[in-house]
Amino acid sequence: MPHAFVIRPFGIKKDREGNEVNFDRVYEKMIRPALEEVQFSGGSMGEIKVAGNIREDMFRLIFSADLVICDLSIHNANVFYELGIRHALRRNRTILLRDESLSDEIPFDLQTDRYFTYNAQKPGNFKEKLTEIIQATLKSDRQWDSPVFAALAGLQEPALESQAPAEFRNEVERAQAARLKGWLRLLSEEVRMREFSWAGLRLVAKAQFHLKDFKGSRKSWEEVRKYYPADIESNLHLASIYERLFRRGPRKALFKLTRKAAKAPEAMDIPEMIRPEDRGLFELSNQAIENVLRNLMATIQELTEALTLKGRNYKTRWRLEFEHLDPLEVRRRKAANRSLKETYEAYRDA
Fold first, then answer.
1. Beta 116-118 vs 20-22: how paired, if at all?
2. pLDDT of 256-285, one tens digit each?
3. Distance (Å, whole) CA 33 – CA 195
4. Distance between alpha carbon 89 and the CA centroid of its chain, in Å?
């Protein structure tokens, strides 16, 4: 389940002219219902009841949250501090709120940002609109809303896996070392309800990929990409997984069948014999590759990997056209076609 963190003042506070706002009421009547509407867990620091260093919990939650909602209606040092941390660590998915009726001015450095405005006297009236804003933010392909990442080209977010507790990382490592695919699949399901779910899922998905449990890894990576559609790492892994599932599954079985049963193999159009659902895997792989190639935040290394995967897909399609043929001379003649040229060009681009 995706997790949200709310940065806000607590209790009843006043602006510089003495106007009072009950921020707890704003949270209960507007923010919490909107988050529940989009099925987000989490809340604000006031809801943390576990023992330990509350500042460490705050840092971890601000960093790991899939969405942060920050209320800047009044001048509050803690709110500014926590928002600064979020802007420094995460490039996007931060929503700013303010009560339009209050007199405190937005600080100069934040004046150009977009705000969702509401009236604290009737916060429940703005729940539906906030829900729409949250949904739009989650679907947006906007690369950043953090002024830090917007200003500093090339700045990278810290690895999300770093937020997973050491004991969970150790358990994933033990499962991988023991080559226990079932254990990893169980961890993949269990971690989804934890506040470090996406970090944990990434760790599990990588371990599953390493063990060649491509079906399990596919499920884990797809869950991550469900809430991070533009995530480069997810798309690169899924591009490879879809192609491997296609190549090692129905394609391999089909070649085995046709080699045994076909009386006139040259007359068979093997690509047309592939089941639509299996052909869909190939298209999903191509789509994942294009997601990376269109991503303005992709590094040279990531773009190179995407182009290499594109070349491999072309090669898979090319080999599909002649691998089933006998004898060798027939395969050689059939292999020299347009698909070979396209495969070469794709690898050349990489």
1. unpaired
2. 555 554 444 444 455 555 666 666 888 899
3. 19
4. 16
Q: Got the DSSP string for 262-278?
A: -SSGGG--HHHHS-HHH
Higher pLDDT, 256 or 122: 122
Structure tokens at 52: 């330990």
Where are the extended beta strands (E) located within the chain? 3-7, 12-14, 20-22, 41-44, 67-71, 94-99, 116-118
| pLDDT > 70: percent of the chain | 81
Per-position b or e across 63-75, b if 16+ CB within 10 A of its CB: bbbbbbbbbbbbe
Cβ contact 227:218 at 8 Å: no
Backbone dihedral region for residue 107 (phi beyond 0: left; psi -120 to 50: alpha; all else: beta): beta
Question: Cis (ω within 30 of 0) for the bond into 2?
Answer: no
Is the pTM of the predicted complex or chain greater than 0.70? no
Phi/psi at 126 (nearest 5 deg)? Answer: -105, 5
3-state helix, strand, coil in the chain (%, to 5): 65, 10, 30
For tokens 């099925």, the residue is 39
- How many residues are there in the chain? 350
pLDDT at 345: 75
Q: For residues 134 and 96, is the Cβ–Cβ distance under 8 A?
A: no
What is the residue-wise DSSP string for 204-257?
Answer: HHHHHHHTT-HHHHHHHHHHHHHH-TT-HHHHHHHHHHHHHHHHHTHHHHHHHH
The two structure tokens encoding residue 54? 């509350």
CA–CA gap between residue 24 and residue 350 (Å, rounded): 54
Count of beta carbons in the 10 Å neighbourhood of residue 134: 22
Bridge-based pairing of strands 12-14 and 20-22 is antiparallel
Is 157 strand, coil or helix?
coil
> Does the structure show a pLDDT above 50 at 304?
yes
Q: Distance (Å, rounded) from C-alpha 275 to C-alpha 278?
A: 5
